[in-house]
Amino acid sequence: MSEVxxxxxxxxxxxxxxxxxxxxxxxxxxxxxxxxxxxLDAAKKGLTEVSRNVRQVSRFLGQMMNGGHDFENGLExxxxxxxxxxxxxxxxxxxxxxxxxxGLNHAFKSKADNQILQTALQLEAQYPDHEIVLVSKDINxxxxxxxxxxxxxxxxxxxxxxxxxxxxxxxxxxxxQFWERHAVEHSWxxxxxxxxxxxxxxxxxxxxxxxxxxxxxxxMEGLVKEVTGTHFVVQVGEDFQHGQRNVWGIxxxxxxxxxxxxxxxxxxxxFVTMLGTAGTxxxxxxxxxxxxxxxxxxxYREIIMTRATVSVGDEIGYLPGTEExxxxxxxxxxxxxxxxxxxxxxxxxxxxxxxxxNDLLSSRIKIRSLNFMRGRTFLNRYLIIxxxxxxxxKQMKTLITRAGPGTKIICLGNVEQIDTPYLTETTSGLxxxxxxxxxxxxxxxxTLKRGERSRLADFASEAL
Length: 464
Fold this sequence. Notes:
six-stranded mixed β-sheet, 31% helix, alpha/beta, 18 strands, single chain, Rossmann fold
């Protein structure tokens, strides 16, 4: 029995989110209601990510229109230049007549979402041999569609993973049989670091710079430095948990923080991602490592910090001043952590601490807005992207491709606190970065689990 052919009716927000959605439905057909074209036209002006996506959709449609105007049989989905997408045999249809579904009152017909739903109901009557599927990122429209008996789905093609629980954590804790299962073929010391070459067994799943924590008598904290088909090499990690080996006065308080400092302080690692809830020390560790490598070791010229300017509450209006002054209210995390890093031996920096903080801010730490990143190239910079969970995959690509020779990029965030509309835990740019870079030998990832802020903050995160 042949599979039922599907006709996908796309909501406007799907195309606003991913312009290439037109080509993601393989052999199935696509239908665009007239109200979707009108909403796209209304959103085309501006410099936002949504406006750029809408203009790209219009260009795609224009290219397909050049291939012919047989609207009755649908337009052929032509491969756009520069896109590496396998396009199936599906065709693109437009709404050519006004929907007329009996039993719907005037209020139902007035709103754009309801017009899309009305079109879906008419298509079900018009094409009984097709399965009509409404695709929308608007959960309320999907609920209304289900009430009316219309099959509705979220747009899944933009997901990095099916479920957040599948996301690479960067840290693994094997059992006590690890050394017996993986025979040590060779061990050596190089530049003061100890390495073990171990034999891989069936079912192994190792990634470069994966953090390895072994408990028990033969315990060890190490990092996987090389992975081949038959072997993998483990380097014993440096111990930053004690005062003798600290980073800008900061010591790691748990194994995950120790792994994070190992990744941050390794000049061979160009890209680091760190996930963790509030208070796990993401920003503090990153800034400490940045200051040590910028001011002490002079590996980088300066630290650049940026973040997505998404408000949690109401907007406070326009901010005066330069780009850096406008970004300062968003960078409270930077100034808070710098106060910790510049405290005196007594634990309170006083006026001196504040003066040093201001001096560091003005001399070696630059605050930049995401809006002005396109077209730039950063040479020998230590680039921190804070609140990266609010960045789309396309924005993440724009930022990471700014890196010139000698630049290190660190992405920090908590995917459980996403404030950007239509972004979810599985579609965030941070999730994409973690998943796509885990195989690259010059990237590392660690998920921080334990809060180290205060007993009050720890209790509040659990109790509230």
